[in-house]
Amino acid sequence: MPGPRRLWDSSVVIGYLAGEADLAEPCAEIIAAAERGELEIAVSIEAAIEVAYLKGYDDDASERIIRELLGREYIIPIAVDMQVAAVARDLIRRHRTPPTIKTKDATHLATAIQWNIPVMETTDGGLLRFSGVEGNPAVTIRRPVYEGARRIPGL
After folding, report:
1. pLDDT at residue 154 tops 90
2. 20 to 30 A Cα–Cα from 42, which one of 4, 93, 111, 115?
3. Do residues 131 and 108 lie in contact, with contact meaning Cβ atoms separated by under 8 Å?
4. What single-letter DSSP state applies at residue 100?
5. Phi, psi (5° rounding) for residue 38?
6. How far is CA 4 from the centre of its chain?
7. Are 111 and 118 in contact (CB under 8 A)?
8. Rounded to whole angstroms, how far apart are CA atoms 65 and 105?
9. Sign of CA dihedral 5, 59, 15, 150
10. Quick check: 1 pLDDT over 50?
11. Is the pLDDT of residue 25 over 70?
12. Measured distance CA(129)–CA(124) in Å, rounded
């Protein structure tokens, strides 16, 4: 049985696939753990749409790389439905004065809240400000972190 879920927003998916140095090690370790069945990575359908192209790749190559990652069995697609939309609207209304929350960020956070996903990983500084603020229990929002024993040689 798979372990706990974490939600990746589009910034993590794009950064990992584009080879951003600061995401390479933690994301590779997280993916290896998912391949071992220790955890699942949830990605909202909205985030899957936001991952439209990868810097340094043409459109066809970008699409192949994106589809390959998002099609893996441990990547769990989460639909943005009316319940998620209602939670996102509530977040937007409650955070209309600084610090405000962007619509897409509210949607990602609402997905984690609605689906009881305790950890959301992002590189978006605006979204990181909401760690521990929303959800019951509160969703931890952080940069990608691998928490298990190191198993990939060379990392």
Report:
1. no
2. 93
3. no
4. P
5. -85, -20
6. 14
7. no
8. 24
9. positive
10. no
11. yes
12. 9
**Tokens at 104, concatenated:** 């897409």
How far apart are alpha carbons 72 and 18 in whole angstroms?
A: 18
> Residue type for 106, please?
A
**pLDDT-based confidence at 151, cuts 50/70/90?**
low
Task: Find the angle CA(71)-CA(42)-CA(111) to the nearest 5 degrees.
Answer: 130
What's the whole-model pTM score? Answer: 0.91
Integer Cα distance of 8 and 76 in angstroms = 10
Q: Which amino acid is at 10?
A: S
pLDDT tens, position by position, 28-56: 999 999 999 999 999 999 999 999 999 88
Sole residue written with tokens 């939309």: 85
- Are 69 and 47 contacting, i.e. CB atoms less than 8 angstroms apart? no
Is 144 a residue whose pLDDT tops 80? yes
Of the pLDDT bands very low, low, confident and very high (cuts 50, 70, 90), residue 153 is: low
Query: Could you tell me if 96 and 48 are in contact, meaning their C-beta atoms sit under 8 angstroms apart?
Result: no
